[in-house]
Design a protein that fits this description.
By secondary structure, the protein is mainly alpha-helical. It contains 14 helices and no strands.
Length: 298
């Protein structure tokens, strides 16, 4: 549902409501309960038409940036979603996605501009944390440490404003970003934090890219060029135009062959040993429609 369709739906609902009110006034036998039920049903239908596409958008966005690594495709999808957003609140949410997509595409300054332009008052404070976290990531990659440090403090100041359910969400970002901030002070702690947050097996190649890229920075800091290049080779071989691959190409020293690090997803035992039943339905795995709140750390 785009903006024009949304406004048309609201106008139609208003006209129908007014008509029902007039009808109820004229025909005394019509119970007000019927008016309430009809108007409520219309409102719920419009709400469904608005929120439904959000769920689909969130899933598609995650698959584009995390699995397909089609970051430019994600950017274009966000641009279209922003243009068609039915309300300003939903537009603000799409702009959050747009800023993240620009970050994943390596367009760090554009990402910061879009994220800073989001109307925060239209979003829950949990989304504020997500916005500031990606401003930090983009600023750090762009070498703007002043913006990075300032925005990290904003996240810390937001912690008490976020509900208990999402305290862990905030803590994760603070831990990762603080480790990045203090990498020159405690490089070993940085390594521990990277291993803690990015070694999980979530099925997405992007998580492996981020882990190897962040570990390459660790090896760069301790002066181990060979191990750094091994991590960078993995990112270059598998990252397409993901921002980690773009940065990896500029850091790579050429001490290993990139072709040796092409990732081949291992087959599961079930796919090798178990027969496929002819009438068995295809299983499709999807993600939650709330990645802003459950989104992985980077």
């Amino acid at each position: 549902m785009n903006r024009k369709q949304y406004l048309a739906s609201i106008i139609i609902l208003g006209v129908v409501t007014a008509g029902l009110v007039v009808t109820n006034t004229i025909y005394a036998f019509m119970d007000w309960l019927y008016v309430f039920i009809i108007v409520s049903a219309g409102y719920l239908f419009i709400k469904y038409k608005v929120s439904g596409p959000l769920q689909m958008f969130a899933t598609k966005f995650s698959m584009l940036v995390d699995y397909d690594l089609d970051v430019e495709g994600a950017v274009k999808m966000c641009e279209q979603a922003i243009a068609d957003a039915p309300t300003r609140s939903i537009e603000a949410l799409y702009r959050v996605y747009g800023g993240m997509a620009l970050y994943y595409a390596g367009r760090y300054q554009d990402a910061v501009k879009m994220l800073n332009a989001v109307e925060l008052k239209r979003l829950n404070s949990v989304y504020h944390v997500l916005i500031f976290a990606f401003v930090c990531y983009a600023s750090y990659e762009d070498g703007d440490l002043e913006t990075f440090n300032f925005t990290l403090e904003r996240i810390k100041n937001l912690k008490d404003k976020v509900g208990p359910k999402y305290q862990g969400f905030v803590d994760n970002y603070i831990e990762i970003l603080s480790a990045i901030q203090n990498i020159d002070v405690s490089v070993d702690h940085y390594k521990e934090v990277v291993e803690k947050h990015f070694t999980r097996e979530d099925g997405f190649i992007s998580t492996k890219l981020i882990f190897n890229y962040r570990m390459a920075i660790y090896y760069q800091k301790i002066g181990d060029t060979l191990e750094m290049d091994k991590c960078l080779a993995f990112v270059i071989a598998n990252g397409k135009e993901h921002h980690t691959a773009i940065s990896a190409r500029s850091m790579f020293k050429g001490s290993v062959d990139v072709k040796d690090y092409i990732y081949v997803e291992p087959q599961t035992k079930s796919s090798i040993d178990l027969p496929v039943e002819a009438d068995q339905p295809e299983l499709i795995e999807t993600q939650s429609g709330k990645p802003e709140e459950e989104k992985k750390d980077e």
